[in-house]
Design a protein that fits this description.
The complex is a heterodimer. By secondary structure, chain A is mainly β. Chain A has 2 domains: 36 residues, no CATH class; 291 residues, Neuraminidase, CATH 2.120.10.80. Chain A has a 4-stranded mixed sheet, with no helix packed on it. A 4-stranded antiparallel sheet of chain A has the order 4-31-29-28, with no helix packed on it. In chain A, strand 28 and strand 29 form a beta hairpin. The longest helix of chain A has 5 residues. Chain B is α+β, with helices and mostly antiparallel strands. Chain B has one domain: Alpha-Beta Plaits. The radius of gyration of chain B is 16 Å and the shape is elongated. Classes of the chains: A mainly beta, B alpha+beta. At the A-B interface, strand 4, strand 30 and strand 31 of A face helix 1 and helix 3 of B.
């Protein structure tokens, strides 16, 4: 019987760490992690479809990495356009395979901010249903993986803001009615911080804490033009490199050094697309912005999150396909590269 | 003129409908009526249509499906009272016609 070496010309090596420059098809045993691995070719990243959410919606709060994502609230219009009170209080968690229903948010809400993941999150602000505590709210609630608990409010009612951080260290920035506003959460209270040098509504945000965040794009209140600025937060705001595409209402994920922005819309839109058209353009950030593979489904005003510029997710939002509001999940992930062989 | 696109009807079931490999190799465009536009004369696109059990459509057939969906959405919009057409959601406009490329 032919041996593996006779077939492939190489032995399966036992190595204490992965080889620095494997060739495509190389197999080795990693004696440190006790795993059999192979190299499937040069790594790249692309979007794929994920599990659909139970129903179409826009304007949810979203946070977390793809394997521990959380969305809360949103609007579920029964017709175009949305009526003011067609909102959700549903909370959904994603493990990278399926969405599962969690404890409902205390009231019906959309245009809400969220930071953390499916096991621990803080949600804040938004526009509540008339049956709730008011119109534009400042309320914040902590999610512990099973229930929502009331926490101190934002320093002012705010909606359509960006968010970054965790359940105990979060940042809220931009949005309406105060487009420049920055609020910081330390696990106990919200405090107002330095204004954004260029705020907007529908700004995109990501970052690991209340001392490290990125603000990307957004829309001026009047005239309602999208912009392509990047701002970095470390206790104060600093301008970074501009994105290639001006956009608002985009999804984002990652850190201040490894981030991804996807979708949204550009107003005014380059001809011939009308400004009501969502875009698929995806950009990767590692200190500068690079266009990468586009979303499968163009979307804006949905939810998104992610761990880095190689792992992110996009959910729902306004799409360009009737009935306009999406049910899709899209996952940004790595293909090829070093893979682990598993057996059952 | 050689066609550059092909069309099929397939319902996006979610996870696995389009995987990362397919997305990196194929330019997908989702259209109303579960119509998908992918490159013509493309092995990867052909394999994907087979995988999702897509029902192939000519451009004219696909255009008819898209038109029916868009017309229904436009009629629903037109039937709304004027107050209902207010931009409660930014960019909320009457659905636009879509013309498919050969």
């Amino acid at each position: 019987m032919a041996t593996y070496k006779e077939i492939n010309g190489q032995k399966v090596q036992s190595l204490s760490s992965d080889p620095p420059a494997p060739y495509t098809g190389q197999i080795w045993y990693n004696s440190t992690s006790n795993s059999l691995k192979y190299f499937a070719g040069t790594a790249s990243v692309a979007w794929a479809t994920g599990a659909n959410i139970p129903s179409r919606r826009i304007y949810m709060g979203g946070c977390g990495p793809t394997t521990s994502a959380l969305i809360v609230g949103g609007s579920n219009p029964s017709a175009t356009p949305i009526s003011p009170n067609e909102k959700y209080r549903e909370t959904l968690a994603y493990n990278g395979t399926a969405w599962t229903a969690q404890a409902n948010y205390p009231f019906y809400i959309d245009r809400i901010g969220a930071a953390g993941d499916s096991t621990a999150a803080i949600a804040f602000g938004g526009v509540a249903d008339p049956s709730g505590p008011g119109d534009i709210v400042a309320n914040s609630y902590n999610f512990n993986g099973s229930s929502w608990t009331s926490k101190p409010a934002l320093t002012a009612g705010q909606y359509k803001m960006a968010a970054a951080g965790t359940a105990t260290s979060a940042l809220s920035f931009g949005g309406e009615p105060d487009v420049d506003r920055t609020d910081s959460w330390n696990g106990s209270s919200w405090t107002n911080q330095a204004n954004m040098p260029r705020g907007g509504k529908n700004v995109s945000g990501t970052g690991p804490s209340n001392t490290a965040a990125l603000a990307m794009g957004g829309q001026d209140p009047s005239p309602e033009n999208s912009f392509n600025t990047t701002l970095s937060w470390n206790g104060s705001w600093t301008a970074g490199p501009n994105m290639n595409v001006a956009r608002e209402g985009a999804g984002a994920g990652g850190t201040t050094t490894s981030a991804l922005i996807f979708g949204g819309r550009t107003v005014p839109s380059p001809a011939p697309s009308p400004s009501s058209t969502s875009i698929t353009t995806t950009e990767s950030y590692n200190g500068s912005w690079t266009n990468v593979n586009a979303l499968v489904t163009a979307a804006r005003f949905g939810a998104g999150g992610g761990a880095s510029n190689t792992s992110a997710f996009q959910v729902g939002g306004r799409i360009n396909v009737s009935p306009d509001y999406g049910q899709q999940t899209q996952e940004w992930g790595t293909i090829n590269g070093t893979r682990t062989i598993t057996t059952s | 003129m050689a066609k550059t696109n092909q069309y099929c009807v397939a319902e996006n079931w979610g996870k696995g409908f389009i995987d990362h490999n397919e997305s990196s190799k194929i330019n997908f465009s989702g259209l109303p009526g579960n119509v998908w536009q992918v490159p013509a004369h493309n092995k990867d696109a052909n394999l994907w249509i087979n995988k999702v059990l897509g029902v192939p459509k000519t451009r004219d057939e696909a255009q008819a499906i898209v038109d029916a969906e868009v017309n229904a959405a436009q009629a629903a919009w037109d039937a709304l009272p004027d107050a209902g057409k207010a931009p409660a959601v930014e960019g909320n406009t009457r659905p636009a016609d879509i013309t498919l490329e050969e």
